[in-house]
Amino acid sequence: MIFNSTLYSNAAFEPTNLSSEEWEKVYSSLVNDNTLPTLNVGADETQVSLCWHSDADKAVAQVRVADNQEMNNSKLFEGVKSPAENPNQVVCRVVIDGLVEKSVYYYQWYTDKGWSKAYKYETKSFGDHKVMVVGDIQITEIRENGDSSEQSRVGLYWNNFLAGVLAENPDISYLISPGDNTSTGSTDAEWQTLLMPESLRSLPVALAIGNHDKKGMTYNYFTNMPNEDYGRFFTGLDRDFWFRYGDVLYLCFDSTSGNAPDHMKFAKEAVEQNKDAKWRIGLIHHGIHGAGDAIGDTETEVLLTNIFAPIFQIYDIDLVVTGHTHSQGRSHFMHSGKIKAEAPTGGRFVNPEGIVYLNSNVVSDVYDDDFDAEHLAYKLVEDEVTTYTTLEFKGNELILETRRGDNHELLDSIIIEKTEEHNDKSIDKFFRKMTYKIIEVVGFIYTMVDNLVRKFS
């Protein structure tokens, strides 16, 4: 215990729903800056981290934490500075550790003008807990003529969507996103707008890499994901990462990379370090066994499915969260590309075989899903309906619920009960590892060709 913390309250967040006029004041005052911090998940439930930009001549990579808003008797955490995309700035990254469950903390980071205002962060239970899933936030870029109206519109929608979800679910512990957090991946203004909701000062995030993030390099400068793995053959923005929260292990892959050898190596090492985790959750961008236009897409259904689905089966993943298609859907329990068992909405499943794939839609500009496929247990066919999913880990149960973002109507739900341990040494998995060597060779060749194309395009 790092210091005497105070017990948490039911009001975990202070979400603010803003009018257009109120938002425009916030947006116009912040959009030309790039120094809002990202609050990231930590390597485990006792940690969170901050990442922010600061003037190179004034930067101090420090955060202080206290159990009171006056910041009396605070503890200082020091981090590291690294180059930013702007040569006049550096990126500061600090890990806060020693957190205790069900406690209230206040923290400040060191800005160009001194200490920031104090923000509240409340830890929830380190056992039973709830997670928010939302994908393809995809903050729009400012147009070439300087018109930022579309970016502001998406930012307002994001702010109020997040405020509504957190008001309805004050017990959420952290947010996971399967990528496309920005539109071009190359401007500070996209990230600054993404981080404008004040709720994000109190909500740690885990952000996978999407194909839009991959268009630029700004993800590098606005995140501090734990246990990042750059592999032997990854280049540029490529990386996987993992984190642990209680009994849940998250394996977060960069599915924009077909680098099968590094993805397999990463999964093996993460699982071996967390053999006691009850649940294993995969997080990737592309919609394997998903809804929408991933159905029939050669890259997703052939290349990426053959690279990632065997890894998920070999390492006994329970649930895979995907995005990319801007369409909400959920699969039956899948195994080797086929339905192992059906998973209708409202069902309860005890020690099921197979993997459920959850495809999240998008914060704005939702597509009308007129695609259908046998593997889908549920899909949202209405357009212009933003949704979110909560994953609640409760004892031996994983409770998955998808709701509308506007009125929180329940659209889809299942309960998975797990009383058996993972079996990582079956004969089936042994042979899968052997045959996957072929996929590793093909994936490696694809990666090298793709890297050359990107380098000279």
Can you offer a commentary on this structure?
By secondary structure, the protein is of the alpha+beta class. The protein has two domains: about 5-120, Immunoglobulin-like (Sandwich); about 130-415, Purple Acid Phosphatase, chain A, domain 2, CATH 3.60.21. It contains seven helices and 27 strands. The strands form five sheets. An eight-stranded mixed β-sheet has the order 14-15-16-17-18-23-19-24, covered by helices on one side. The chain has a seven-stranded mixed β-sheet with strand order 13-12-11-25-26-27-22, with no helix packed on it. Residues about 5-10 have low confidence and may be disordered.
Structure described in brief:
This protein is α+β, with helices and mostly antiparallel strands and 457 residues long. The protein has helices spanning 20-30, 149-168, 188-194, 219-222, 260-272, 298-314, 427-456, and strands at 6-7, 38-41, 48-55, 62-66, 75-78, 80-83, 89-96, 103-111, 114-115, 119-122, 129-133, 172-177, 205-207, 228-229, 240-245, 248-252, 279-283, 319-322, 329-331, 333-335, 338-341, 348-350, 356-359, 376-379, 387-394, 397-404, 410-417.
